[in-house]
Amino acid sequence: MENRKELNVVLCLYRIFLEKTDASHVISLASLIDELENCGIHAERKTVYKYMQALNDYGFKIHHVRRGKPHFYYMEHPYTLSEAVVLIDHISSSPAFSSKETDLLTNKIKSQLSTYQAEHLPHTYYATSKTDNDAFLENIETLLPAIASCTAVEFQYYDLTIDKKRKYRKNDKIYHLTPYAIVSSQGKYYAVFYDEKHKGFSNYRLDKIDHIRITDEKTKPIPFSLEEHMKTSMQMYHGKPATVSIEFNASMANPVLEQFGDNMIISKRTDTTFIANIKTTLSPTLTSWLIQYHEQLHILRPQSLIKEIRHIALELLEKYEEE
Is 136:95 a contact under the CB 8 Å cutoff? Predict the structure, then answer.
């Protein structure tokens, strides 16, 4: 830009395109000139063309639409309406974001929509279990360069008491670990750290990390597969590795595929059943998942899993047996 005046014109033009146009709402050149006049800017047709080209040169996509003789224009927004809805819904329903951070992020997304798109945003559900930690995003900002440079960080880790007060673990211990990844599971976010002392990886909830700081200690990278770590440490996969064979009713195809995906082989199928050999780990969460579908499956092996299910069933029978 040659001077501040030209910059002001481009910024005003950008604001007009952002707020008043989208793929379904276009604007004519005459209307653009009128809108600029409302901003106190007098501009000729050639000048508006020049500044629209400047916006394109700066990476803002201004589209030209022909509808008869008049020519119309609109700007391609960073988010479509559907993309904005999905992003806002995820942030709002996730317990990982505090109410403050939720409002901050959703308002940023909404600010990148036209007024017409914003009017069509549906009502958003806010999770009732929002964290009280407003430093969740700051924690990620600190961890990302530490992960890239394999640098150790220090932090405290806390739980909430029944009074919703923070209680730092291990008598206010300062953890000294090296971060390797940031992952999400069931709406919660975790940092995967390597502990040099115990020679292993472990997960820590990002919204329970407090007073984090990056150190000057560079560490030697350790071979690490995020895919394998997720399989053995998150959700129902945390436990002893095993291959589980189960006969399912045919109606269970969808939940089985959603839960285990490519980690299984179908060895036999009929019109009413199929047998899945699942590569997983034996854990309480896996056991709970199987129990909820007990009428629609039959565990074939391993014997240790069958024994565990039988033990739980007998305990429940004894506990709730009628007097």
Answer: no
**Quick one: tokens of 101?**
């951070």
Q: How far, in Å, CA of 87 to CA of 124, rounded?
A: 11
Name the residue among 122, 115, 86 with its Cα closest to residue 24: 115
Strand, coil or helix: 171: helix
The dihedrals phi and psi of 221, each to the nearest 5 degrees, come to -60, 140
Sign of CA dihedral 140, 143, 147, 148: positive
State pLDDT tens for residues 284-306.
888 999 999 999 999 999 999 99
Cα gap 272→249, rounded to integer Å: 6
- Count of beta carbons in the 10 Å neighbourhood of residue 46: 7
Six token digits for residue 294: 């007990």
Alpha helices in the chain (DSSP H): 4-20, 29-38, 45-57, 81-93, 99-110, 115-119, 136-149, 169-172, 226-233, 253-260, 284-292, 303-319
Whether the link from the prior residue into 255 is cis, omega within 30° of 0, is: no
Separation of alpha carbons 168 and 186, rounded Å: 24
* 128: CB partners within 8 A, 6+ apart: none
CB of 62 within 8 A of CB of 56?
Answer: yes
Residue in the block written with tokens 């017409």: 116
What phi and psi, each to the nearest 5 degrees, are found at residue 286? -60, -45
* AA letter at 240: K
| C-beta separation of 152 from 176 below 8 A | yes
**What is the value of pTM for the model shown?**
0.72
Instruction: Give the CA distances from residue 246 to residues 40, 190, 290, 311, in Å, rounded to whole numbers and listed in that order.
Output: 73, 31, 10, 18
Cβ contact 283:238 at 8 Å: yes
Model pLDDT for residues 33-51, shown as the tens digit of each residue: 999 999 999 989 999 999 9
Look at 6-20, 84-98, 158-172, 229-243 and tell me which has the smallest mean pLDDT.
229-243
